[in-house]
């Protein structure tokens, strides 16, 4: 990783920690992933050779930079969705500084609308770190736009397990998905969609 990007990530870590320690208003908190989660995302993108990556919940762009840095290695791109204008402004500034602008498309949009407008099997990897109360409602679209063999990663599976339990149960109940929880950072719920040849065949 380039020195300048390393410095920017450290700066954003310090900013996020300091900001969230003093601000209780959720829309103004950064709620960034941990560095260990960022490192995990980078490994996952590279190992899957993911070229089309979707992130829902940009915040100030900290997690996006981990995804984008890995996408630069795969020749891929990150589409990241954030509704807050305030956070989009922060993210744009950080993306400009990062040198990763070609790997990032920032959408200031309602995530539900973006999901509904996305083509089937569009993404190799989806990272979900947004409003957990929306996840169950988003699931049919998330399932549809994740390609066979693709990977869904969802943050806060351990730190906010009570808020995630219904969503995780829904995904686990789908016979086309194989799931686990990885105790990295705040806990990552991971689900991979079976490739078409391995998908369960419905009884006649």
Automatic annotation (TrEMBL):
GO MF annotation terms: O-methyltransferase activity
InterPro entries to which the protein is assigned, alphabetical: SAM-dependent_MTases_sf, SAM_O-MeTrfase
Keyword Cytoplasm set for record: no
SUPFAM superfamilies named in the record: S-adenosyl-L-methionine-dependent methyltransferases
Keywords of this entry: Methyltransferase, S-adenosyl-L-methionine, Transferase
Top-level taxon in the UniProt lineage: Bacteria
Transcription recorded as keyword: no
Any GO BP annotation: methylation
Protein known as: Methyltransferase domain-containing protein
Organism: Craterilacuibacter sinensis
Native organism taxonomy: Bacteria, Pseudomonadati, Pseudomonadota, Betaproteobacteria, Neisseriales
């Amino acid at each position: 990783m380039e020195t300048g990007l390393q410095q920017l990530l450290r700066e954003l870590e310090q900013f996020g920690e300091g900001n969230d320690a003093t601000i209780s208003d959720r829309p103004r908190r950064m709620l960034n992933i941990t560095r260990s989660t960022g490192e995990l995302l980078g490994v996952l993108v590279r190992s899957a050779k993911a070229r089309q990556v979707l992130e829902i919940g940009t915040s100030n762009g900290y997690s996006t930079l981990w995804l984008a840095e890995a996408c630069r290695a795969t020749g891929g791109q990150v589409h990241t969705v954030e509704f807050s204008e305030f956070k989009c402004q922060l993210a744009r500034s950080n993306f400009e500084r990062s040198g990763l602008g070609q790997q990032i498309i920032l959408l200031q949009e309602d995530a539900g609308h973006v999901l509904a407008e996305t083509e089937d099997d569009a993404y190799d990897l989806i990272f979900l770190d947004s409003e957990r109360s929306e996840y169950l409602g988003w699931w049919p679209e998330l399932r549809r736009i994740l390609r066979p063999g693709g990977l869904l990663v969802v943050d806060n599976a351990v730190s906010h397990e009570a808020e995630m339990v219904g969503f995780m149960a829904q995904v686990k109940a789908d016979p086309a998905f194989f799931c686990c929880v990885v105790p990295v950072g705040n806990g990552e719920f991971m689900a991979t969609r079976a490739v078409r040849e391995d998908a369960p065949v419905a009884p006649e």
